[in-house]
Amino acid sequence: METDYHKDSKRLKEYQKEYYHKNREIMKEHSRKYYKELVKEHPEKIKMYRENSKENQREYYRNWYKENGRSRADNYVECALEYKQKYPERTKIGRQLTAAVRAGKIKRPDVCPKCGRRTRVHAHHYNYDHFMNFVWLCASCHRLEHTKNTV
Fold it and tell me: In sequence order, which ranges of 42-138 are alpha helices (DSSP H)?
């Protein structure tokens, strides 16, 4: 049985979703500004929050993985650390590109320029001389690019 309260809460949720989608950039900017101010004024609170939430996050993900399974290998963290040690220049270039995208200096397209598919794109570096020597590709085109180079 649906009461007036439930109807109103559904309408409110729909309104909130619509409002969020219309004002997404404004809300993100507000969150960034608020977080920067919070870090400046209360760095000890941020540090305490991170320390206190680590165990909660670990517990949450342990339970989530038990229910839903893993999409990564169990030794993913070790493999990632090994890759960082083996290829420090690639890691550095990747971090520089990520920072540029987050800062808004580089815009990530939502369409793969090679196949035209509308999806999240990856940066493929042809060489690691400079972080700007890359092309955006979707996951499947990126995989094909790597296999093309090895064959």
Answer: 43-68, 76-86, 88-103
Cα 22 vs. chain centroid, distance in angstroms? 21
Rounded to 5 degrees, φ, ψ at 75 are -100, 30
Write phi, then psi, for 113 (nearest 5 degrees): -70, -20
Element (H, E) at 123: strand 122-125
Q: How far apart are CA 121 and CA 113, in angstroms?
A: 9
Query: Rounded to whole angstroms, how far apart are CA atoms 41 and 20?
Result: 28
Lowest mean pLDDT of 7-11, 55-59, 123-127, name the range. Answer: 7-11
* HSE (side-chain half, CA atoms, 13 Å) at 7: 4
Length of the chain counted residue by residue: 151
- With CA atoms as reference, report the closest residue to 113 among 102, 103, 124, 128: 124
Average pLDDT over residues 86-97: 92
